[in-house]
Structures are given as C-alpha cells and as structure tokens.
Design brief:
Layout lengths: L2 E9 L3 H12 L5 E4 L15 E3 L1 H4 L3 E2 H14 L3 E3 L3 E5 L4 E6 L2 E12 L3 E3 L2 H4 L9 E3 H10 L7 E5 L3 H12 L3 E6 L9 H8 L6 E2 L2 E7 L6 E6 L12 E4 L2 E4 L3 E3 L2 H5 L24 E3 L10 H19 L9 E5 L3 E5 L2 E2 L5 E7 L3 E10 L2 E11 L5 E5 L10 E5 L1
Parallel strand pairs: 1-2, 1-8, 2-5, 8-19, 10-17, 11-12, 11-17, 12-13, 20-27
Antiparallel strand pairs: 3-4, 6-7, 7-8, 9-18, 14-15, 15-16, 20-22, 21-23, 23-26, 24-25, 24-27
This protein binds flavin-adenine dinucleotide (FAD).
Length: 412
C-alpha cells in the first residue's frame, strides 16, 4: 500500500484538533491532515446547542456549533486538508497511521502525530447497576445526540444519575422538550457539575437534586418502568431501608468521561492512572517521541476554551519538533496526593515558565494550592472556593523552581 508522507497527522477534528491544525499552519507547517471519523468536523460541540462556550476566548457566550464553526471556517480558509468519514484504526510508535476511509484503507507516515480524539462516556456496565436490561437507559451524550442532532425525543418521565455538566444540561434540555425530569441523583455529597449549571439547569426549573444518593436497581421488561434510588453512606455504600422507587421510562447516565485511549495504547503511549489519558511533558509530548496529546483525550476539560488553548500550545511545540529544534528535556516529575484529582503536565524541564492544570478532589472554602519541592514551598495560591468541577490553571515561573527534584502539588 502506498504510504502518504505528512509532517503532521491529526487524529480527530474536534476543537483540540482544529486549533492545533491552525497553529501549525501559522507556524509554517503546511503538510498537515486532519482525520475525522464523523461526516463533519467540530467534535462533540456539534451536539451542544446550548450557549456558554467561548466566554474566556471570545468574551462571548456562543453555542457549541457556533464556537466550533469559527475554527472549522478558518481551517477551510487556510486550505488545511481534512478527511472526514475517516476512522483511525491503527497507530504505531514509529508514527504510521492507518485510517478506514470511504476510498478504503489509507496509511500515513507522520513526522508528528497529534492525539485529539476526545473522550467517551462511562456506561451502565462501567458502574454495574443491577436490575433488568430494558430500553430507555441512555448515556447523557447519546441522549443529547438523539435530541439535538437526530430530532428524536427519547422519553417522557426521566431520572438522571450523575450531576456532571452533561447530565445537568440534559435535565434542562429534556424539560424544554416537554419531558418531566423527576430528579437528578448524585452519589457524592456535592454536585459534580459547574455551579452555573446547577443554577441554570436545575434550580431555574425546580428540578430536585439528591446528593449522597444513587440508583440501586432498574425495573422493566421491554421498556424501563421504574428505578430504585437509595441513600449512600460516606463510603458510597447504599444504606438499607432508604430505598425509594421512581416510576419513569428513561434513565440518563451522566457518570463520567474517560479519554479515548485505544490508539494511544497501540502506539505504546503511557497512560496516567488518574487522568486516564497520556502522561505528557510541558510540550504536551507523550513518552513516544513525536506523539503529542491535547484536549479531552489528555484530560477531561470543563471549558472548551482551554481545550483550544491546549491544542495551540501543543502545536507550537510540535512545529519546533518538525523543524528539528531541540526542546528542553523534561526530567522533573510533577506529582500529587489525595487532595488533588489530577495534574497535567506530569513532567517538566524547569527551564521555562509552565502552566499546570489541575482539579482538586473535593470542594472546600478558603483553600490554597501549594507546590513544594522536598519541604520547601515554591508556590502558593489562595482560592476563596475550590471545586472539583472547575479546572484550575496555575502558572509556575522558572525562577520559582528550586532544583530538579520532584514537584508535589497539594491542597494546603
Ligand atoms: C454535553 C456536553 C456539554 C458541554 N458543555 C460545555 C459548555 O457549556 N461550555 C464549554 O466550554 N464546554 C462544554 N463541553 C466541553 C467541550 O465540548 C469539550 O471540552 C470539547 O469539545 C473537547 O474537545 P476535543 O477536541 O478534545 O474532543 P471532541 O470534541 O470530543 O472531539 C474529538 C473528535 O475526534 C474524533 N475521533 C475520535 N476517535 C477518532 C478516530 N479513531 N478516528 C478519527 N476521528 C476520531 C471524534 O469524532 C471527534 O470529532 C461540553 C461537553 C459535552 C459532552
């Protein structure tokens, strides 16, 4: 098979991939292709028709398709090659990319591979809810795509499990489409979505949120008939005797997202146990030289604005690599303890300023994020509120880094 040579092959045409392509082009890299499995680029934003996108980047509240369109149009204007309906099915550590396309299999040899495949939703199987297997159980993203892209209404009486942003947004969407949302059920003692979504999607529509509760059974033969909801203790275990039954025809699961990492694994990219995405250095390069990652495939973001910024940052480093410029070696590990859910990048050089992105593991007031090397605090930032739903971005200046010793990030 003819192998097509490319400077950069971008896997996935969502906001991260589109932003990376544009920045590469700006940096003088022309021989690029974006491979996208759907009919159109734009990624998950195509189905997010609510507004709230672009506030950081454009200082405007755009819908998902509007935000994506700004990048899609620019990619067209810049004549960047895009192949849609092309599913990448193979990636090797020497950067050979195999894609299944309408014209058959295609193979590319890339100087740089950019991983921007986004993430997938956790399903009922991932959280093992017992009970029957009737129709009417959907993940939030699938429900969203039925309603917003295919114009198919999915049910009338709905219970939502999980108070992540997608679940909250679907509570409002289903209400606006005429369904009755009986309750949003959350296992944690705090909501997992952004405060603005709790206000605008639940409180504005009088939809009750039950914290420290979970769905413990599903009933129904052909179609869902009811779900059982129980209180949970501090360990997340259902408390016997607290069961309550909700008659409903639809259960929406919004129980977390996982980076789409099969291709990364094929290429020998090391994954991080907490982010579940690749381990990267300050250039967003993985352990496989020339393979970079950004966006939700790297770690799940709260706002798309930061996804685009990350795609651009990646492209700046990737462009240098393509031009043969040698970067600093990242030898300082960045680690956390139980107070932080995850941190990116996980390795830095200490030779330049670096932005650390992180999520705390539980909400608190008047907390501080501390970075330390050994016993020495090298950076401390105070926050009125810390919330796991919000990603925090902290700039660490090179003067603050004391040595090549590990940097530990904790909530103080
Ligand atoms: C329901 C929902 C609501 C949201 N609401 C907001 C909000 O209000 N404000 C906000 O800022 N953000 C919001 N977000 C988050 C934002 O949409 C994401 O952070 C952003 O889209 C992630 O961009 P990405 O490019 O990393 O991934 P994606 O947008 O997921 O793009 C990945 C692309 O890769 C393609 N792909 C995957 N695998 C392959 C393969 N093997 N071959 C070829 N192509 C492949 C996919 O088809 C997809 O197009 C929301 C997300 C969801 C799901």
């Amino acid at each position: 098979m003819n192998i097509i040579k490319k400077d950069a092959v971008i896997l996935g045409g969502g906001p991260a991939g589109l932003a990376a392509a544009l920045k590469l082009k700006e940096k003088g890299i022309d021989n690029i292709i974006i491979l996208e499995r759907e009919k159109k680029t734009g990624g998950i934003l195509r189905q997010c028709i609510h507004d709230g996108f672009g506030i950081v980047r454009f200082k405007e509240a755009l819908s998902g398709p509007e935000y994506a369109d700004r990048f899609v149009q620019e990619v067209q204007r810049q004549n960047i090659e895009v192949q849609t309906e092309a599913t990448v099915i193979g990636l090797t550590n020497d950067k050979i990319v195999t894609a299944a396309t309408k014209e058959g299999l295609k193979k590319y040899q890339a100087k740089v591979v950019i991983l921007t495949m986004g993430c997938r939703e956790r399903t009922r199987g991932a959280i093992s809810i017992p009970g029957t297997r009737p129709a009417g159980v959907y993940t939030a993203g699938v429900a969203q795509s039925y309603i917003n892209l295919k114009n198919i209404m999915i049910g009338k009486k709905v219970v939502i499990l999980g108070s992540g942003d997608i679940g909250l947004i679907m509570a409002r969407r289903l209400t606006l489409e005429g369904a009755e949302v009986l309750a949003v059920i959350e296992k944690q003692p705090y909501p997992s979505g952004l405060p603005r979504n709790i206000e605008q999607c639940l409180n504005d529509y009088n939809i009750p949120l039950y914290l420290s509760h979970t769905v413990t059974n599903i009933q129904g033969k052909e179609r869902l008939e009811s779900v059982t909801v129980s209180k949970v203790d501090e360990k997340g275990q259902a408390i016997e005797g607290t069961e309550k039954e909700y008659n409903c025809d639809t259960l929406i699961l919004s129980v977390g997202l996982i980076p789409e990492n099969e291709l990364s694994l094929q290429a020998g990219v090391e994954l991080h146990p907490r982010t579940k995405g690749p381990i990267v250095d300050e250039n967003l390069q993985t352990n496989v030289e020339g393979i970079y990652a950004a966006g939700n495939v790297l770690h799940v973001h709260d706002l798309v604005d930061f996804v685009s910024i990350e795609g651009e940052k990646l492209a700046e480093s990737a462009a240098k690599y393509i031009k043969g410029e040698k970067g600093y070696e990242s030898i300082i590990p960045v680690t956390t303890d139980h107070t932080i859910n995850n941190v990116v990048p996980q390795k830095i050089s200490g030779e330049q300023d670096v932005e650390i992105s992180l999520r705390v593991s539980k909400p608190s007031k008047d907390g501080q994020i501390i970075m330390q090397q050994g016993n020495k605090v090298i950076m401390m930032k105070k926050f009125k509120k810390l919330n796991p739903a919000e990603m925090i971005h902290i700039k660490l200046k090179k003067e603050e880094i004391q040595s090549k010793e590990e940097i530990k990030v904790v909530v103080g």
